[in-house]
Specification:
Helices cover 60% and strands 9% of the residues. With 742 residues, it is of the alpha+beta class. It has a six-stranded antiparallel sheet with strand order 9-8-7-10-6-11, with helices on both faces. Strands 1, 2, 3, 4 and 5 form a five-stranded antiparallel sheet that branches. Helix 6 packs parallel to helix 8 (228-258), helix 7 packs antiparallel against helix 10 and helix 16 packs parallel to helix 18. The two termini are 20 Å apart.
């Protein structure tokens, strides 16, 4: 066997130091960008929709009719009884104070409710500015200046936007602390060493710093769209994936140390053993994530390249930074439990009584293979039945924040005294000569409380309308004799305004929009419908379309990668089927927990898509770790013995990696946003299923039961187990591999 000359002592010291310095520089530069994410982040749903969506088309022309890109905040006051004159005057004073706030474009007069117990004002806020800051200042005014006997809330689209932003508070502080803390505890328990967990965490943290630096500048250049949701997923994904890859490398390094290799030899041997599965696993995750580029939602589309960048730096860090750290620390990294020569040697015959948890499990799988994989499959299929209870067709914006929400409370008060859709109307753009017909459709539509039209020459910017003899009649504003206003016309079109009877963020309001669009389409008016409710509806519909298209594509892409990696067709097909069943089981249990335990109102349509992307891409990681090692062992020991040896060799590292990944995704639950909490549970629970049932029982047992045919149609499928024992007929492992792969 030929051997490569060892590099000089100077190079063995200098190269790790240079790599560490490069990563330290990248982390030092990227670290401060955690506090600057808000500068390039947006949570405006309308900016995520495709240009073909009706709500997007309306949003783009809103400025032409209203004179500014505004988002309304509704300030509602409740008297708990009859509203007196002094209180109404106090509401007007609040309106005057609100009008003086920077970022406020316009404030409506105080509008008392028909029951005389409440009043509201509509505050138009510049959507291109700092909406969250303006809402915070507006709430301070309401709290400080509310008239005696009145309680006030700031709600409406601007209020919900501010509450959502508040919900994401801590995503670059609390989330990272919880995730890193959980990872550190698990690693200390696994390795019983104070230094090694720190080295692994440094690998993850520096990968995240450099990834965030890259993503920040891409978002700054408007190449990608970054929001709080994508930001949180990026943080967790990089920490979890980098730790997983680091654990795989550490396991190989520990094996090399246990074989008695010197420090540099152990580093390079571990690198050669880990590079293929790490690149294959990371490549699979990246390929799955890039399938999100097929999405029509900019937020989903952005997650693909953003998360892929994170995975790329996670792999790079695990294959350069961590080896450099271990080259400098050597065996001391494992102190006080330093691996001794021979302590990691696998038993010769795992079908006989042996010691160790994974060796015993391998023996159990060998003796009861068929029973094990059948029972495992039945358990997963039973759990998957819960998918029928999954509700993922959208939730009201008021339910997105799980914690305290002033906007949600204010919306409830608003619905008691006004039309629930007040302040968040539908905007309907239609040709001027078809406006009367469209206004009639709107007025006759159940779920619409009132109809108006944008008119520049009115105090409120719009006027009431009626259709008479095919003409649009505007209600005169001002004292008797005042001339009737004229609608604002842009490009031959006018903009009608429809107030909904239901809350603008409700599913009932979305259904009204759906019905209205169908009715307008039948009348061939050419009208397009936008507004807050239409944005929510178009987002949900687009998200449902995305998951229908993207999920099958991901399956095909991952299947092809597995075929190339394992040089087989049957094994990849079975692995994909196992992951699908595992995902269905995770989703089924999650649906039951969401409905029966947490009482969630439903879920975003993107939750199953994101859950699928992460569970298939990350779940297949563990199968890659396992089966790549199984194939390696099968080349020398035969398929069935190789399966058992691969199970024992990877059992500890994959279990540790699964626990780490589950813990990091579970950390998303500290951000009290419904989407992230649901995603955290689905992925964390699904990863544990993959780790302890699919990877530990189902896949090894099924592969063992099938035997060498698992590698069909490669030549390894035609080699009898006894012909691949020992030293492979006198050939080296590399020579034997080349013979089989020829």
């Amino acid at each position: 066997m030929s051997s490569t000359p060892a590099p000089s002592r100077w190079l063995r010291i200098a190269l790790p130091i240079v790599l560490v310095v490069i990563w330290l520089a990248g982390g030092t530069i990227g670290g401060p960008y955690f506090g600057k994410v808000e500068e390039v982040s947006t949570n405006d749903q309308s900016s995520f929709l495709p240009q073909s969506a009706e709500s997007t088309q309306v949003q783009e022309r809103l400025d032409d009719f209203t004179g500014g890109d505004a988002i309304p905040a509704l300030v509602v006051f409740d008297a708990g009884g009859d509203l007196d004159a002094d209180q109404l005057t106090g509401v007007r004073d609040v309106a005057d104070a609100a009008a003086d706030l920077p970022g406020v474009l316009e404030v409506s007069p105080a509008i008392p409710s028909e029951d005389g117990e409440a009043a509201q004002i509509v505050v138009s806020i510049d959507a291109t500015g700092e909406v969250n800051d303006v809402v915070a200042e507006l709430r301070e005014i309401v709290e400080a200046d509310a008239p005696p006997g009145l309680e006030g809330w700031v709600t409406g689209p601007a209020g919900f936007t501010a509450d959502l932003a508040t919900g994401f508070t801590g995503i670059d502080g609390l989330l990272l602390l919880v995730a890193l803390g959980a990872v550190f505890v698990i690693l200390v328990v696994v390795y019983r060493s104070p230094l090694l967990p720190l080295l692994v965490l440094l690998t993850s943290v520096f990968a995240l710093c450099v990834a965030l630096l890259t993503v920040w500048w891409l978002a700054k250049a408007q190449i990608v769209v970054l929001n709080g949701q994508v930001q949180g997923i990026l943080f967790i994904l990089v920490i979890g994936a980098a730790t997983d890859y680091a654990l795989l490398y550490v396991a190989r390094f520990r094996e090399a140390i246990g074989e008695g290799r010197a420090r540099w030899d152990a580093v390079t041997t571990a690198w050669r053993g880990a590079v293929e599965p790490i690149l294959a696993s990371g490549g699979t995750v990246i390929a799955g994530l890039l399938c999100l580029l097929l999405s029509d939602l900019a937020s989903n589309r952005a997650l693909g390249p953003i998360a892929s960048i994170g995975i790329a730096f996670a792999m790079l860090s695990a294959l350069t930074f961590l080896p450099a750290l271990l080259a400098l620390t050597g065996r001391a990294a494992f102190w006080p439990f330093i691996p001794k020569t021979g302590m990691v040697e696998l038993p010769a015959d795992l079908t006989q009584p042996t010691k160790g948890v994974w060796a015993r499990l391998a023996r159990f799988v060998a003796r009861r293979a068929r029973v094990v994989w059948i029972l495992s499959t039945v358990v997963l299929l039973v759990a998957a039945v819960g998918v029928t209870q999954l509700k993922a067709d959208g939730v009201p914006a008021s339910e997105l924040v799980l914690g305290e929400s002033q906007a949600r409370d204010g919306q409830a008060v608003l619905a008691e005294h006004f039309a629930a859709g007040s302040g968040s109307p539908l905007y309907v753009i239609v040709a001027e000569d078809r406006a009367a017909d469209t206004a009639t459709v709107l007025q006759d539509q159940p779920g619409v409380d009132g109809v108006g039209v944008i008119a520049d020459d009115t105090p409120a910017g719009q006027a009431g309308v009626a259709a008479k003899d095919g003409e649009l009649v505007l209600t005169a504003a001002g004292p008797p004799g005042t001339a009737a206003p004229e609608p604002t016309v842009d490009g031959g079109d006018v903009m009608l305004v429809a107030t909904l009877t239901d809350a603008a963020d409700s599913l009932e309001a979305e259904q009204t929009v759906r019905d209205l669009r169908a009715t307008l389409a039948e009348g061939t008016t050419g009208a397009i419908v936008g507004g807050t409710t239409a944005v929510d509806l178009d987002t949900n519909d687009t998200s449902i379309r995305d998951r229908t298209v993207i999920i099958p594509v991901i399956l095909v892409v991952v299947l092809l990668i597995l075929m190339l990696l394992l040089r087989s067709i049957l094994a990849p097909v079975l692995l994909i089927l196992s992951v699908i069943v595992s995902f269905a089981a995770a989703l089924g249990v999650s649906a039951l927990v969401f409905d029966g335990v947490f009482g969630f109102p439903g879920g975003d349509p993107a939750v199953p898509l994101y859950g699928f992307v992460f569970l298939v891409a990350l779940g297949i990681d563990y199968n890659i770790f396992l089966m790549s090692r199984v194939r390696e062992e099968s080349l020398r020991h035969g398929t069935r013995r190789g399966i058992l040896r691969g199970l024992v060799a990877t059992g500890g590292v994959i279990t540790s990696a699964g626990l780490v990944l589950a813990a990091t995704f579970a950390a998303l639950g500290v951000i009290q946003i419904l989407f992230l909490v649901q995603l955290a549970f689905i992925v964390a629970f699904g990863v544990l299923l993959d780790t302890f049932i699919v990877r530990s029982l189902l896949v090894p047992a099924l592969a063992y039961d099938i035997g060498r045919a698992i590698w069909w149609p490669s030549k390894l499928a035609h080699v009898e187990d006894e012909d691949a024992q020992g030293d492979a007929g006198g050939m080296t492992r590399a020579e034997y591999r080349r013979t089989l792969d020829a």
